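Dear Dr. K.,

Following up on our conversation at the group meeting, I've run the structure prediction for NTF2-like N-terminal transpeptidase domain-containing protein from Brevibacillus panacihumi. I'm pasting the input sequence below exactly as I used it, so you can double-check it against your construct before we proceed with anything downstream. Let me know if the numbering doesn't match what you have in your notebook.
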Amino acid sequence: MPKTVWFGLCMLLSLLTGCMGQSSNPEDTMNRYLDAWRKAQYEEMYDMLLVSSAKEVTKEDFVNRFRKIYEGIEARNIVITPLSVPEESDDKKTDSTRLYPYEIKMDTIAGMIQAKGKIQLEKDEGGEWRVHLTPSYIFPGMQDGDTVRVQTLQASRGEIKWSGNCD
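The predicted structure tokens came back this morning:
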């Protein structure tokens, strides 16, 4: 009997430990999402999406889109900082939805990019906070169907005209 009890306790502990990765705190969920984004861990980002968001895009498409865009612009030194939400803001007032502002900075082939955006979190049916996906998470202002393209253009040389004397 003691071996059965010990086995049961071990199984319960394993189950509880496995569930600890999920967060019922929206700030923790947002910070985990931003951390995965900084580290280009797009699979982990996808795993934090709401079921309704995940139904709109496959994991493979989600990962490929982020990867192609950030590799295409040669993004490096990515810094994503959560910004504070003022206490009087409506962004923190609902029980099932929260908006969290963030700032993203990165060096790219086109120079430094800096932008601000908001991540929307919603509680799922199980009470866990999940990310509601919008295209603006890739770049603030981005909408469905938008693409990101980097193109290097060769400058044409201007004519040099002399207007002075050669004396």
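Two things stood out to me. Helices lie at 2-19, 26-38, 42-47, 51-56, 59-72. The first strand starts at residue 76 and ends at 82.

Best regards,
J.T.
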